Amino acid sequence: MTTRHLETIWAPRMLGVLTIMAALIFLAHGSQKAFRFSGV
């Protein structure tokens, strides 16, 4: 396998993981503000 082949396979998967992680961070921040939890 070449590097180009690995990039085409893993790039969409890593983008999906990054999207889910970002969504969870935004969800955590929003719930802290909505429910007035401490950010610690």
Molecular structure report:
With 40 residues, the protein is an all-alpha fold. It has one domain (1-40). It has 1 helix and no strands. The chain has one helix at residues 3-35. It is rod-shaped and about 50 Å long. The protein starts with a helix and ends in a 5-residue tail after the last helix. 0% of the residues are buried. The model has no long low-confidence stretch (mean pLDDT 91).
Using brief descriptors, characterize the structure shown:
40 residues; mainly alpha; 1 helix; rod-shaped
Question: Could you tell me how far the N terminus lies from the C terminus, measured between alpha carbons in angstroms?
Answer: 45 Å
Count, helices: 1
Structurally, the number of domains stands at 1
String of helices and strands: H
Using the CA coordinates, give the radius of gyration: 16 Å
**Low-confidence sequence ranges:** none
From the helix content, strand content and strand pairing, which structural class follows? Answer: mainly alpha
In total, how many beta strands? 0
Helix coverage percent of residues?
over 70%
What's the shape? rod-shaped
**Which sheet architecture does the biggest sheet show?**
none
The overall pLDDT, averaged over residues, is 91
* Strand-residue proportion: under 5%
SSE topology sketch:
Blueprint: H1 3-35
Q: Can you describe this structure in just a few lines?
A:
With 40 residues, this protein is mainly alpha-helical. It has one helix at residues 3-35. It has one domain (1-40).
